[in-house]
């Protein structure tokens, strides 16, 4: 009887410990996926852009519209979603080479990041990206010239947008097949990953449904999102262009050459004589 009693106690303690582990994974994962970043003091005005607010009240989210500096009206618009530890503040100057060639950009912030209200989640980010697309159309950008460009976590954001709105094309930079696949690569058993991951960002599933052209960009030495993730994405869209970058995850120069060629190849931009 004493042995049985001890077995029951050990089993109960193991169950409690396992429940605590599951709770930490389930409720703590968003702090890892969405660490956020402190807002800077600058604004889009310094680069000739415009600040736009999406939504209303405490949940409103910020976006920066950076219009093309040259070119005819009706040029392409890049709806850009950044990585999980970044802000739109970090990206305003990076789009100057494209703006000089007639490309506009809309940098969309995540809920709960920087000056934006709300809280980040797959659902709130998807809603914000859809609102950004709708605002762009209201401002005169034709849907057939609106391209989603996501870096790292941003790839999940624009793939989510592609399920909601008719994007003309997708540019996925240093992104993953899904958060579930990333969790598995980090050592979480598959059954637990599928059970516990709250914000799945199933980019593989989104690409299977997307009918437009896709450009995949990935650092050949990426130490955060394995290059095998890019290969998995390419497998479901074999007609997509896969361009390897000579870098890791956070040290990549802006890949304007392949992006501008991609836009030109699909009739959204005149072929540049020499891409920066």
Characterise this structure.
- The structure is a single chain.
- The chain is of the alpha/beta class and 276 residues long.
- It has a single domain, classed as 3-Layer(aba) Sandwich (Rossmann fold).
- The chain has 9 helices and 8 strands.
- It has helices spanning 2-33, 96-99, 122-138, 153-164, 179-185, 190-196, 203-209, 227-236, 256-265, and strands spanning 50-54, 61-66, 77-81, 104-108, 146-151, 169-173, 214-219, 241-245.
- An 8-stranded mixed sheet has the order 1-2-4-3-5-6-7-8, with helices on both faces.
- Helix 3 (122-138) packs across helix 4 (153-164) and helix 4 packs parallel to helix 7.
Task: Offer a few descriptive terms.
276 residues; alpha/beta; Rossmann fold; 9 helices; globular
Based on CA atoms alone, the radius of gyration comes out at: 21 Å
Summarize the helix and strand pattern as letters: HEEEHEHEHEHHHEHEH
CATH architecture, please?
Answer: 3-Layer(aba) Sandwich
Assembly state (oligomeric): single chain
The best one-word shape is globular
> Residue-averaged pLDDT, rounded?
86
Annotated CATH topology: Rossmann fold
| Number of individual domains | 1
Q: Which CATH C-level class is it?
A: Alpha Beta
How far the N terminus sits from the C terminus, by CA atoms, comes to 78 Å
How helical, in percent, are the residues? Answer: 25-40%
Main beta-sheet strand count, sense and barrel state: 8 strands, mixed
Strand content: 15-25%
Poorly predicted runs are 9-24
Please identify the structural class as seen in this structure. alpha/beta
Q: Work out the number of β strands.
A: 8
CATH superfamily: Alpha/Beta hydrolase fold, catalytic domain
